[in-house]
């Protein structure tokens, strides 16, 4: 197609293909073995695991103070390295703080999500798991800056291979939800150690010295990230995890486990293609903006949307019409409810997949304040949708409300950045 042919005319396609190739291989393993894993663990197991993933995802985002996107911005690699270390130190200090909090309040936290007191022990694992997640995210940004996509892809394959292998081994050992949690920690830990090893062996230039004054300087220079990006990302991450946390708190374990499993399966296209595309999209989009080529940036963004839409449309229509029988056949009869949920969620997933690169444009264009506004709106309607379903004793009413709001928000979100690009093009011509 014409638009995909133009995208292919640069190293962007090579970089994206490298990331997508590695990510695809990484995701193939859990996808291939998902029918086995779904038979080794119950919906109740996935309910507890879903709460763990939600909490550690929130903490993993917060503890960096969201300095890691700034790793891409300096022209000077040495300044970028200071941002990396600032993010890592922030993550380590806040991990210790949250660990103390969890140790003191693990039972009340467990009670919020209908988790038995005897099962609350796993909560103390959340802060260290969040640190491993944060370290991965920080260093992925650095390797993306250096265009070391093979390093990122290889580590994703190892990371998901470990996750899948641990799931299967611990599943056969009948470890229940703890096996799912432990698998996540093992895979994230080893991936983070690999990135750190490569970073310290190859990234630091000869004579590099870490200085406190440099950390303070970059912390001050990029203070808009903790001021604006952190609040919006925190709210956004909480809102992303809010449905599973609310369903776990308000509904049965079976329903929350079914929702989490369905969403996990449907999120694979975003993980395989969307996130890889977004990383390389960000680099190319930033380069176009820095050179004031706003028309080129806008064309690139529109072609990216069209390309992603052409990828997702057929599987989305298939799941929309046959979600329940597909899930029951592939994953087992216990997951029929997940198939029903998936046939509703797929509409939102389709819109999110097409829009996956757009959030990085807000950072590149200095529109972080808008992110906060959108994040507050999103967390509000997600809470209201799920809670309305609970009040009406109709889970699917809440789910349909949620999906409709999601699609409308994504359309508006993209329209805002499109309008901003048009304004920049007009200003550039004057």
Please provide a written account of the structure.
The structure is a single chain. The chain contains 16 helices and no strands. The relative contact order is 0.12. The protein has helices spanning 2-7, 11-40, 43-62, 77-112, 126-145, 149-172, 177-203, 212-221, 224-250, 253-266, 268-290, 294-331, 336-355, 358-364, 368-391, 395-429. The protein has one domain (2-429). The chain has 430 residues and is an all-alpha fold. The model is unreliable at 1-9 (pLDDT under 50).
Features:
disordered N terminus, mainly alpha, 430 residues
Q: Kindly state the mean pLDDT as a whole number?
A: 87
Total number of distinct structural domains: 1
Global shape: globular
Largest sheet: none
- Please state roughly what percent of the residues sit in beta strands, choosing from under 5%, 5-15%, 15-25%, 25-35%, 35-45% or over 45%: under 5%
Number of helices: 16
Q: Poorly predicted ranges (pLDDT <50, ≥5 residues)?
A: 1-9
Alpha-beta classification: mainly alpha
What is shown here, in short?
With about 425 residues, the chain is mainly alpha-helical. It has 16 helices and no strands.
List the SSEs and their pairings.
Layout lengths: L1 H6 L3 H30 L2 H20 L14 H36 L13 H20 L3 H24 L4 H27 L8 H10 L2 H27 L2 H14 L1 H23 L3 H38 L4 H20 L2 H7 L3 H24 L3 H35 L1
Helix pairs in contact: 2-6, 2-11, 3-5, 3-7, 3-9, 3-10, 4-5, 4-8, 5-7, 6-7, 9-10, 9-15, 10-13, 11-12, 11-13, 11-14, 12-13, 12-16, 13-16, 15-16
